[in-house]
Amino acid sequence: MSSSGTPAGGDAVPGPSGEPNHLRRFLAIWIGCSVIATPLVAILLGPLLPPGNGSDAASGQVTDNTVLLSMATPVLLLVVVYLVYALLAFRQPRGAALEGPAVRGHQSLQTLWIVVSGVLVLTLAAYGTVRLETGYGAGSGNGPKPLTAPKGEKLPVQVIAQQWAFTYRYPTYGGVETTHLELPVGKTVELHVTSLDVIHSFWAYQLGVKADANPGVDNVAFVKPTKIETFEVHCAELCGIWHGGMFDHGHVVSDTDFESWIAEQQARFAATTKALPKYSTTYTPEPLERGE
Amino acid sequence: MSATTADAASRPAQEKPLWRRLIGFNLLTAVILGVGGYYLGWWIGHLVTEGKSFEYTAATDENDVALLLAYFFGVIGFLIGLGFANYPISRLLGKPASLREKEEHGIGRYFGLCTDHKVVGIQYLCGIGLFFFIGGLNAMLIRTELLHSQPTFTGPNQYLSLVGMHGTMMMGMMTSGILGPFANYFVPIMIGARRMAFPRIEALTFWLLMAAGFILTSTIFFGGFPTGWTGYEPLNDQAVMGMDSYICFFALVGISMCLLGLNMMATIITMRAPGLTWSRLPIFVWSVFATSVLMVLAAPMLVATLLMAAFDRTIDTSFFLPAGGGSSYLFENLFWFFGHPEVYILALPGFGIVLELLPVFTRKPLWGYRLAISGMLGVSLLSFFVWQHHLFVSGINADLRPFYMLSTEIISLPTGFIFLCVMGTLWKARTSFTVPMLFCIGWVFNFLIGGLSGVFLSDTPSDTTTHGSFFVMAHFHYTIMGGLIFAFFAAIYYWVPKMLGVNFNEKLAKAHFWLMFVAFNSTFMPLFVLGMEGQARRVNFYEPKFHTLNVWVSISAFVLGFSMLIFLYNTVYSLIFKREVALQNPWRSKSMEWQVATPVPVNNFEQIPVFDSDPYDYGTPLVIGDTRVGGAQVQGG
Fold this sequence. Notes:
The complex is a heterodimer.
Chain A: H1 22-45, H2 56-89, H3 107-134, E1 155-162, E2 165-170, E3 176-178, E4 182-184, E5 189-195, E6 200-204, E7 209-213, E8 219-223, E9 229-235, E10 247-253, H4 255-268, H5 270-275
Parallel strand pairs in A: 1-5, 4-10
Antiparallel strand pairs in A: 1-2, 2-3, 5-8, 6-7, 6-9, 9-10
Helix pairs in contact in A: 1-2
Chain B: H1 18-21, H2 27-48, H3 64-82, H4 86-92, H5 117-145, H6 156-173, H7 179-190, H8 199-217, H9 235-238, H10 242-270, H11 283-314, H12 328-362, H13 369-382, H14 401-410, H15 412-426, H16 435-458, H17 460-466, H18 470-500, H19 506-533, H20 547-578
Helix pairs in contact in B: 2-3, 3-8, 5-6, 5-7, 5-8, 5-20, 6-8, 7-10, 8-10, 10-11, 11-12, 11-13, 12-13, 12-15, 12-16, 12-18, 13-15, 15-16, 16-18, 16-19, 18-19, 19-20
């Protein structure tokens, strides 16, 4: 038996006289709700969305989240309004055993649904791709050889993850390694994330940066901090028993503050820097020990 | 009657004394042989490694070889004890095969090897239910810990073991959550067959899963495992012996899943009754078919991956260890190549249940039957091309991210088909709000939220923040708990009256639904906010600013747990004490399983039915004629 081949719509079945035009009513409610809710979401809720405006990557993600949420709102309302409407309007009367109309499909409605959702999905994918490539990875880890990189001068900073702490190395400042992350405001930073043992993930929340730290891999992420502030650093990949405790605070500071801070670090860790292995994008992990 | 009735084939069991009935191939023997096999494996493991594992860095009391061999021999002993070796051995020796497994009667057959698909279905329901409650209990303990922003209630290792056990138990056992009980029980009846294609394999899948469940639970004796359900390397290699329980558990689940899928596919392809063409197949059977395809293709990848992980842990290979030239990316790739189809293995049967139940309770034919099928098969096919969206920030193949973004977003197309079919069926319907229908409506809402939140995760820039946060956790709980588990309960309230012949108490069932639905949303909706605000997954420390919301979530989670106790109470009260006899067809369904008698006769049908339509010819005046009662008659109106 053909199920959906016959173009017999729900409206083709005549209801009892005096029954309202449900389709028109539902469409009016849905469109009304969407017209009100979507701009509210985009204008009022959008700017409040995480992760804030701490960097170019973070602001970009706020824009993306706003776009996605604005597109999702009418879809959410479509199904929710429909569900509520249909469940309220079309009920089995108490104690009755009535049958519904024997409608098995609606060819043109199905085609319309496929076309509209297809267009929506392709638009989203195209939008995401453009945002990803023009945003130089949008703050995410781009692997060892990023396809696109911001032009101009960049400050390379290496993030070395190990159980259960991050340390940071500044190759352009004599390869000094610090236990604390400070970044100058307004300068593009090239983060090289790697690990010495298991998989970690470097997550600087307010900067909108997340890049997995894999042993033996140099995972590059780009970010340009735009605001002087303190940001949270978490590990975002389960890395063993103290994973939850692997968090810290970093600072975005002014250029002069950064220069004086890094000079101080260089002086303080001068002896340690000499003992460190030469700066490299990855470090061969030690064989793992049990029960550490 | 004893729970371990064994060889009561020709003579009634009552004639034999109890001690005689305990000897033979039964659960007791299986447990004894299982324990024996365990110690044999343990002994061999210590013998070949001279008390030490091959792993040169192993601590002295760590012997992965011994534990893995112990589990291996334990499972073999368990299966032999149940009688799984009897058939192949008797055939090898040229003796006639015994078919006695099917002929047993009484309660004893539920506690041993039984090849009746209806018995296996009920075994699955109880077994899966048991492990579902263990997994749920772990979740309660996790939420208890998260009442505080610092570890207080559990140690860090205990906490991660709870997280790992909860995740692994649910992701492993619930893969068969609907296929195990309901597909095993109802697919043969729905397609007009008397049995599954491979009845012994069907029983094997169940007992493998039970062995696996106990192995995972035993991880608490070996230090637990710190990796969560994903088992990422190299943390996996670094972990103590409890990790071997995870490896063994998931490998057994993979084997069970693969066999289950194979059996379902063979049954659906070859054993349909005359007239039951592909375009008349109930939509639930289609969803089982789509799931089976995934199971057969994805599960072997899991087993192979875990075998490699076990080799890394025991005989010093280095597939996944960068220190030895391996790659941690390899594990992530292999795992998610299984892992993403896996989440659709969990979701697809839910689609099937909802679409199968809606026509019954709206008194309308299923709207867009072919669209629903293409939706399910589309999801099933596409799910093999999206796995790297789990690795967007990992740095692996970063240039391919636009492709995975596209494929992931395209998968929302076939999922949208399912929603359209649901909506079409509800239009101008005669909806009655029975308990199964309420759970279906709950499914629609939850899966909608789950699906829409998935769009944020599929978009790489947006995923950068939400990846690995509570947002992901909320997303997949909406799709799996809100999707699969709601459909699971819809199926329980819909089909258990047929399976056991007794009704649930409707008031308690409705209380269960409302409490579960409200508590579920109250638990997981705030997690989206927490994740967006920056709380990472699987942590036992979090910042004080998240404390209030976490307390809210924990309290809602306890209410959610309490709603399960209502269900449990209802089950015990209605099914064991009250025993209100169910009608043959209380829902006035036109599907085949409701046309056979309750309880379903051993051979299902006196004669194989002939089908002349799909089971959705509602919307015409209903004929509940005696001609259709008894099950041996022609299907259709």
